[in-house]
Amino acid sequence: MQRTKLTLGALVASTALAGMASAQTELTLWYHGAGNEVESNILGGIIEDFNGAQEDWQVTVESFPQESYNDSVVASALAGNLPCILDVDGPVMPNWAWAGYLQPLPISQEAIDGHLDATIGRWDGEIYSVGLWDAAVALYARQSTLDELGLRTPSLEEPWTKEEFMGALEAAKASGNYDFALDLGTAWTGEWYPYAFSPFLQSFGGDIVDRDGYQTAEGALNGEAAMEFGAWWQSLFAEGYAPGTSQDPADRDSGFIEGKYAFSWNGNWAAANTLASVENADDVVFLPAPDFGNGSTIGAASWQFGVSSACEHPEGAAAFVEHALQDEYLAAFSDGIGLIPATKEAAQMTESYAEGGPLAVFFDLSAEQALVRPVSPGYVVAAKVFEKALSDIANGADVADTLDAAVDEIDDDIEANQGYGH
Fold it and tell me: What is the pTM of this model?
């Protein structure tokens, strides 16, 4: 008889829970991480926690391969079939907001206090998206290499100057110990080029577009500073400091580890594998970007959550995002996929980014050197133009003609889109 009472009690509880679930309004989330089991499991846990923590909203997730994700969103937007919550790459967000795919995210200021600035996506004076992590690039080196070549070890406070950086490359080349002094990762294409290389241009004093109004690239991408950058960029390949655009992808992945390159310009996402693969992990150092005259700068802004224009319950989407921004989740993502947690508190909870951790320097680099890519809907076009221009210059194209042509192409696109709403 006692067993029957327990069974009936369980049935009553199950019915009550089912009733609560049916009362929750469903919010669909689209995510770019299909195929990444670790990432999917962490996100699934956050969603499960959120759904069980309140009675108003029920988030469900649909994941897409990253390669096809943006195209899927654009196609669905045109068809009027967007979900409520969208995953969006930081530099792409202004384009989606301008195109009407996103609406402002009604998130509280308290929820984003203390976050790395680049993890907060702003457009036209409003917040549209917030990320759980960021990414940073550093110059990989070995302390033993610096010592053998008689080089000063740069710091965040005192990065290498252009002269010191070129002196380091020349010393490495002259030593005869390396296939190339510098690995820039030219085997990678697409967003790597503006993310990794436009900070060099910005440190020279130029930019992809003029950020004062975002109405032209004239002067920013083809002015005196940009021309100096372009000549320097071309010299890296012409004078044999770095492999060109035909770099073997395998060398990009393992060249520094195997000692083929003295220095490698790479992101924090590759750092853990590098430390695990080299003979002496304690010898590896992650150095700040050189200062080419206008400050030491790296790229910033990674994937973020926003609310689509089709969402009828933006308050529910914001509630989920705020829930996902808890430090324990930021730390879990960092430990799981190796990226930089969005807050210092979360960093202290991680294995790699806590003070004294093997990758802690990357949090400091992101906090001190990060500059977001041009915050403009036109960035998605300008980025491709910039990539082609740098690839052509690396392959010997005339610097002035190439940058002037790039400016014309970017300006034509801005004019064709009536200034992109700036």
Answer: 0.91
